[in-house]
Amino acid sequence: MRLRGLLLLFVVAASVEAPAARRSGDSRPNIVLIVLDTVRADAVGRRAGSTSSNTPFMDAWSRRGLVFTGALSPADQTPGSHFSMLTGYPAGAYASNVDRTTASVVHELNVAGYDTLGISANGSVDPALMRSLAPFQSFVTSPAYRPTALSAEGWDTLQRHDMLARPAFHGVETNLAKELASAETINERLSDLLAGCRPPDGFRRPVFLFLNFIDAHDPYFPPRSAGPADSALASHWPLTGDLQRGRPETQPEPAETGEVPTRENVPRWRRATDLSPRDVAFLRSLYDGEVRSLDARLSDTMRILAASGLLERAVVVVTSDHGEAFGEQGYLAHALEQHGIHVPELYRVPLILRGYGVALTPLRRLAERFSTTALADSFRSWAGLTRGVGAELDPIAVLAAAGARERGFPKIAAPAHTPPAAKHPVAKSAE
User: How far apart are CA 193 and CA 322, in angstroms?
Assistant: First the structure.
């Protein structure tokens, strides 16, 4: 395959008219939602038994924010978890008759006078596939499906890991698609998007910005700067970060055959039982390298946001849509819930909130277990909306009174009345 300078010719992106003039005295904050696709909670910070952190940038950045250590994704796969974060409905409602367009908080923010912008590295997170994303006024789909040149680092990474062709996803070879959608490229697209939408005198309306980074998703092949030594890679052939390589399937994916997914027909590549503990540890090291590389790129993301003026008054949320299994209960990867398998590590996700020019008061204990479904009502609260899915809003945190500190707050007692979290069997199984 000739990869260098490859251009992909398909693009799906919605456009938006020039932002309207910002109303005088509109002090509502910009809201930035950053989803680190497939990043499990223990991949952020210092792991047990380790002497160093895997995410030094996020560690330092979060010291002035709120770190919720008990956050749970409502689903172990991308569509349901994103749907819940953007609507406030349980993930199980994704396949129901809920109007996923008008139920989206993005639709409500449009009506309330926000400019809504989105970029996704994950080809599955696209308005054409997820109706809860459709209301975005401007949405840039995965760089894998836009004219995108493979960087020198990307070329070196694919060669170094000997990443061979794999079944296509949306018409694009999977390993190449992921490398084309790296955080480096997403940051470039972010700069272009903000430069194109921002008037010379700055954004005139508050902005809701959504970003999805896919670097930690399988296949795992971190760049040289964050990955293992060449000698370590050589000693693990033919096992690589591509979970499907060299793993002959006893059955195809149920979705390909029309079968109902069961515990018995989990594809072989999702099973860890034919790998040694050393092999599983090696896969985890590749995954950690991907997270480490993504962490370094996030510092560039924050610089881009600051340069655009979005951080002058803003709330930034960093979380994930689900985790990843590395041998827990004998499985790998994610999306096991469809087979009736609930691995707790697939639901535990990082969640960090930080205010810029505004202070946040948490309404949950920082270690309390709750679903990231509550993010939708948090967005509504920060934007000054008064209604959510339930009878009243159920945010994670609210904007503090003027003059309050912008630093993180200590653990506080729960308020006298806290609306119960949305009931979902996944949250129970993750406990």
Answer: 27
